[in-house]
Automatic annotation (TrEMBL):
Organism listed in the record: Paenibacillus shirakamiensis
Domain Nucleotidyl transferase residue range list: 16-155
Entry similarity comment: Belongs to the bacterial/plant glucose-1-phosphate adenylyltransferase family.
Matches recorded under Gene3D superfamilies: Hexapeptide repeat proteins (2.160.10.10), Spore Coat Polysaccharide Biosynthesis Protein SpsA, Chain A (3.90.550.10)
Stretches assigned to the Glucose-1-phosphate adenylyltransferase/Bifunctional protein GlmU-like C-terminal hexapeptide domain: 283-349
Enzyme class, first EC level, given as a word: transferase
Domain of life: Bacteria
InterPro entries the UniProt entry points to: ADP-Glc_PPase, GlgDAde_trans, GlmU/GlgC-like_hexapep, NTP_transferase_dom, Nucleotide-diphossugar_trans, Trimer_LpxA-like_sf
Record EC number: 2.7.7.27
Entry keyword set: Glycogen biosynthesis, Nucleotidyltransferase, Transferase
An example molecular function term from Gene Ontology annotations: glucose-1-phosphate adenylyltransferase activity
Protein known as: Glucose-1-phosphate adenylyltransferase
Length: 367
């Protein structure tokens, strides 16, 4: 959609996944066997026809840049527009901005050169299949200053605690933005705003010494702005802790959840050409998600295996997430565990975590 330009703002997102974010930012964390968290919001944007997308990153972004490249899997490797990965580059001695406003202020060229009239601003921690064309249509119909995307959560979990909540009146407008934990209207860190108004608010916030756009331009002025609320009703997961990552990953082993996330529209990711998974005569695999390139000779139950995992004969993996190119030795036992990339687990070793607090092994570890 030529009327929308996208901003994926990772500047304010903390690396809260412990060992999984030792060497990468949260948006680059692998998910669902072959994807990264960033893939879902990026695919939603490109499905809506957004062709100009900037990515605000501040730390641990090498893995993310390697994954995204020039944006070819999302058709963003273009001569005009496309994907712009914008790490910190603070060279203006007169700059007094802070927080994510500093990122916006130092990359005004992205906004000024783009022909789109509206800004779609999102984060990476909310996994969903939001139709941004429908959000844009709703924003126009409501005649709002800004439209926030939210979802009604049937069962509140600990990962929802940090999320903002919205009170929405019968006309579809926000009457209050707050942090009441028992409230089910969870704000999904997505909003649409006219570009000229967006930049006007940026200038105003910087002039008044503010630091974060949503908090200082929208939340603090919620009673002065006309804020519409778009309700999203599809698949939704929040990934902001190891526990939420583990729970929502294994939830995808339920066909209903998997189909809700992947069936209607594809999710694009970096392409890697590998042979199909090879199952040896001794292999026993049930209710698991297994990517290509694996060689399995042991038992795998209720687990997710990423590309290139080797499971030797006699090994048993249960309720676990095994990331790319891990090697599980003979007769090793793994239960309620997350192994990051390139972990080598010797033969006859046992790793057992708790179903609510999985045991996590950092990338490239040898035990």
């Amino acid at each position: 959609m030529s009327d929308l330009m996208g901003v994926i703002n990772l500047d304010y997102e903390l690396d809260q996944l412990n060992e999984l974010t030792y060497f990468r930012c949260g948006a680059a964390v692998p998910f669902a066997g072959r994807y990264r968290l960033i893939d879902f919001v990026l695919s939603n944007m490109t499905d809506a026809g957004v062709k100009d997308i900037s990515l605000f990153v501040r730390r641990k972004f090498r893995s993310l840049m390697d994954h995204l490249g020039e944006g070819r899997p999302w058709d963003l490797d273009r001569k005009r527009g496309g994907l712009f990965i914008l790490p910190p580059d603070w060279n203006d001695p007169s700059d007094t901005s802070h927080g994510d406003l500093q990122h916006i202020r130092n990359n005004l060229d992205f906004f000024n050169r783009g022909s789109a009239k509206y800004v779609l601003h999102v984060g990476s921690q909310h996994i969903s299949k939001v139709d941004f064309c429908d959000v844009y249509r709703y924003h126009k119909e409501q005649g709002a200053d800004v439209t926030l995307v939210y979802t009604k959560v049937e069962q509140l979990e600990p990962e929802h605690d940090p999320c903002l909540r919205l009170d929405v009146n019968e006309d579809g407008f926000v009457s209050s933005i707050h942090h009441e934990r028992d409230h089910s209207n969870v704000y999904m860190e997505m909003f649409v705003m006219e570009k000229s108004f967006f930049l006007e608010q940026v200038r105003h916030c910087i002039a008044h010494g503010d630091s974060y756009f949503f908090r200082d331009a929208i939340q603090k002025n919620q009673h002065q702005l006309k804020i519409a609320a778009y309700e999203y009703k599809g698949y939704h997961a929040v990934i902001n802790s190891v526990e939420s990552y583990y729970k929502n990953s294994l939830d995808l082993l339920t066909p209903e959840n998997y189909n809700s996330l992947f069936k209607d529209r594809s999710v694009n990711t970096k392409i890697k050409y590998e042979a199909p998974t090879k199952y040896l005569d001794s292999a026993d695999v049930s209710n698991s998600l297994v990517a290509n390139g694996c060689i399995i000779g042991g038992t795998v139950e209720n687990s997710i295996l990423f590309r290139g995992v080797r499971v030797h004969k006699g090994a048993k993996i249960t309720n676990s997430i095994i990331m790319q190119k891990c090697v599980i030795g003979e007769n090793a036992v793994i239960e309620n565990v997350i192994l990051d990339k390139d972990v080598n687990l010797p033969s006859n070793r046992m790793l057992v975590g708790d179903v609510k607090r999985p045991f996590v092994i950092a990338k490239s570890s040898t035990l």
